[in-house]
Amino acid sequence: MKTQNALTLYQSANYQTMKNIIIADAASGNHTQVTIHPGTTTRDILHQGGFGTDYSLTRNREGEAIPPDQNLYEVIPDGAKLWVSTPVDFGTDDDDAQGLPWGHNDSDGDSPSSREWIRQHLAANKSRLFDSQSLLTDLLPARSYVRPKPVFKNAESKRYVPQVTVTPLKPEALRSPPQPRPAPRVVRHLNVAPSRLPYWQEKGWSCHRTGLRAIYQGYFQSRRNRVKGRIEQGVLSTDIFLQHPPAVLQRHRTWGCFHMREHDWWEIHHHGCPDVSSGIVQVERTLSEAEEMES
Amino acid sequence: MKAFLNLTLGHIPTFVVDAWFLRDCIRHHTPLEDEVGSYITGPHLGGVRVLSRICPVDPKVQSPVRFIGSARSSASRLIEMVENGNRLHATFHSHPGAGVGATCPSFIDDGYMEKLQRRGAKALGLICTRDGYVRAYSPAMPFMLLVQGTGVDEVEGEDHVFKIQM
């Protein structure tokens, strides 16, 4: 019974393999809920989220950008919020500068080459420059069309005349309690899995097959310990072993799930059939938890 | 006026700025010959966005024809806006040269704004020259720009180009 409880505890504590985080676009304010799998890196999220290569993830205002190869699953807690942004980018390539009107310093902007360049540029990008009046005429019903210019512009002098309308503040508005700021609206959900190497391969584990069984060998790596490990994956089961477990593990709540085999190899009992990468992640997480408890 | 505001609130992003602020922006962005770039934010009321605050971005690359902000500074400024309940309304940068022609956006300018707008930012681009011309541009979003105040003229034959008396 005690062993069963320990197994259940180990399973519930260590085999929840996905995390949900929020990615907030700093420019638009849009939020995306992202589910990440073990081994997911910054690059995976940016790539699968449709962000360009010049975008970066940041934890907060003061933080540096998170490196593209950083394994986010390891360092970001469940429910964390990250910001995505791209640096300001203006100007032109040096090679192209010769053809632009500001490449030759004309003082009044009326030189023939400048005019010609502008004419060509505007013709090529006609749909990119919007005229408010034509938009109103084209897009809105005729009866609701109002010419915007006379509101702000004195037609005779062609000079903008200040025109401010101030509505009186109702006294009851001053007495109303402040409203809580609405939570940001999540505009989409994204499920991001590592797109490059599986975690076991990324961590340098090797694999060889004997019949229907695949045997993975490598090291479980935590902040302070590097423990030799072996995972045997069959059709119906996955067995996880580690050799010479550090003493800190004996104080972890799941130590009851570790059972000694020959040559100081220890087998970890668990329920279910986790994939190899998840097994490695969970053992490494257990090691890290044990080290944190000790410190 | 009321009908006009009703019209703008729901349909087309409308940006409001005063000539005084544009004059400040031009002075801020043209201290030397190199390009300078920054974000602009301010209050927003429905679909109406008021340009009222400059958020300068530290440069990573800066020359008379190029301005690339540092990733950290860009992110920090944008996050600061959101944390204060504001939104990005515009990007502002200077161009070398003079006259209306010098305010035309380059392909990099267009590309950067289009990237922001495609990802949902309702922001427009503004380019100024040191002699007082300002152009608003938007590659992927229709908009209306209302300039309020004195000392500003609309440039004939151009869309969204203004001459500010410095």
Tags for this model:
heterodimer; A: 295 residues; six-stranded antiparallel sheet; five-stranded mixed sheet; B: 166 residues; alpha+beta; four-stranded mixed sheet; globular
Report on the structure:
The complex is a heterodimer of chains A (295) and B (166). With 295 residues, chain A is α+β, with helices and mostly antiparallel strands. Chain A contains 10 helices and 14 strands. In chain A, the strands form 3 sheets. In chain A, strands 9-10-11-12-14-13 form a 6-stranded antiparallel sheet, with helices on one face. Chain B is an alpha+beta fold and 166 residues long. Chain B contains 4 helices and 13 strands. Chain B has a 7-stranded mixed sheet with strand order 5-2-8-9-10-13-12. A 4-stranded mixed sheet of chain B has the order 3-4-1-11. Chain B has a two-stranded antiparallel sheet with strand order 6-7. Strand 5 (89-91) of chain A pairs antiparallel with strand 7 of chain B.
Q: Shape of chain B, please?
A: globular
Profile the largest sheet of chain A. 6 strands, antiparallel
Biggest sheet architecture of chain B: 7 strands, mixed
- CA-to-CA gap between the ends of chain A? 31 Å
Helix content of chain A: 25-40%
**What pattern of helices and strands is seen along the backbone of chain B?**
HEHEEEEEEHEHEEEEE
Q: Give helix % range of chain B.
A: 25-40%
In terms of quaternary structure, the protein is heterodimer
Number of helices of chain B: 4
Unreliable runs of chain A: 6-15, 95-115, 121-170
Overall SS class of chain B = alpha+beta
Compute the separation of the termini of chain B in Å: 30 Å
Strand/helix succession of chain A:
HEEHEHEEHHHHEEHEHEEEEEEH
